[in-house]
Amino acid sequence: MFDWKQDPHRRFNPLTREWVLVSPHRTERPWQGQVEAGAAAAQPDYDAECYLCPGNPRAGGVLNPSYTSTFIFDNDFAALKPDTPHDRFDRDGLLIAESEPGICRVVCFSPKHNLTIANMDAKDLRKVVDAWVGQYVELGARPTINYVQIFENRGPMMGASNPHPHCQIWSNHAVPNEVAREQAAQAAWRRERGTCLCCDYAKLELAAGDRVVDQNECFLSVVPFWGVWPFETMVISKRHLTAIDGLSESERDGLADILKRVTARYDRLFHVPFPYSMGFHQRPTDGAPHEEWHFHTHFYPPLLRSATVRKFLVGYEMLAGPQRDITPEAAAKRLRAL
Ligand SMILES: [Zn+2]
Ligand SMILES: [Zn+2]
Ligand SMILES: [Zn+2]
């Protein structure tokens, strides 16, 4: 009989409607528990060379203020510009381009060069959550901005150009690909079943338990059934809310708490500052209510077996589709035990 925890199989991602190939039998070899000490040198709390530290000059020449809390500024080398005029180019339906206005910002979590989410105290992390809410509301209120993407690239492995803990906000006119796909799936779910996809999924995972990593009163962290990256997780709000601006006071604290818990578990996994890309998915700011949207966070960490052995999406993944060996259930069990 087929055993979906042992035999090769594929799993369906209802948010993107894509399949991932799972090959659990390939991880039957015993776990080596490899630890590479000193993979990352400890950072000082101020670095005179850092362009994000208080009082230092940025790459564009502007001086940072001597900030003492969360600090937000327009990206000096923004991928998008607010005043891009509207235009469209189409040659025979083959060469199509559209102008894309937008605003890119950087949020330094704190003045401390070495203070990561996992190590911030609740009070300071709450200020970061408040900054995210403020930015989502402010940028989203602009008529040219229909989506606000908040994300963090952590660690050189993820292309983070600076170790000073910070995130980026790219807000623009078009709803981006990943968001559009998840929106279509959530809207179809709501149309066909009359419920919310993520509310239903959170309930199922809480009842099942074997993919749950952590939780608090307001949020749940799971390794999604369909995850692609070995230790991929999702943070889902237990209450249905379409975006970060709907968080109550206690839910803002709850979000800070769950992000700290998840990142601290990650750091303990291979005893290194764990690299990842994380970000929020939520309601576009195009003015529609978007009841189908359920606010959630994705963590996409690249590490596979140790501080240096990472997963690559190459070969089969580039040409055919994503594949993983360690099952989401096994990954959740490891993260839960830390
Ligand atoms: Zn710094
Ligand atoms: Zn929901
Ligand atoms: Zn999503």
List the helices and strands and how they pair.
Layout: E1 9-13, E2 18-22, E3 71-74, E4 88-91, E5 95-98, E6 102-108, H1 122-140, E7 147-154, E8 166-172, H2 177-193, H3 197-208, E9 212-215, E10 219-222, E11 233-237, H4 249-269, E12 276-281, E13 296-300, H5 316-319, E14 323-324, H6 328-336
Parallel strand pairs: 2-14
Antiparallel strand pairs: 1-2, 3-6, 4-5, 6-8, 7-8, 7-12, 9-10, 10-11, 11-13, 12-13
Helix pairs in contact: 1-4
This protein binds zinc ion (ZN) (3 copies).
Please report the distance between the alpha carbons of the first and last residues.
33 Å
Helix fraction bin: 10-25%
In spatial order, strands of the major sheet run 3-6-8-7-12-13-11-10-9
Counting H and I runs of at least 4 residues, what is the number of helices?
A: 6
Bound ligands, named by name, code or SMILES: zinc ion
According to DSSP, the number of beta strands is: 14
Low-confidence stretches: none
What Rg, in angstroms, do the CA atoms define? 21 Å
Strand content: 15-25%
The structural class is: alpha+beta
Averaged pLDDT: 93
Describe, in short, the structure shown:
By secondary structure, the chain is an alpha+beta fold. Helix content is 24%, strand content 21%. The chain binds zinc ion (3 copies).
Description:
The structure is a single chain. With 338 residues, the chain is α+β, with helices and mostly antiparallel strands. 24% of the residues lie in helices and 21% in strands. The protein is built from six helices and 14 strands. It has helices spanning 122-140, 177-193, 197-208, 249-269, 316-319, 328-336; strands at residues 9-13, 18-22, 71-74, 88-91, 95-98, 102-108, 147-154, 166-172, 212-215, 219-222, 233-237, 276-281, 296-300, 323-324. It has a nine-stranded antiparallel β-sheet with strand order 3-6-8-7-12-13-11-10-9, sandwiched between helices. The model has no long low-confidence stretch (mean pLDDT 93). Residues 196, 198-199, 240, 294 line the site of one zinc ion. One zinc ion (ZN) is lined by residues 196, 198-199, 240, 294.
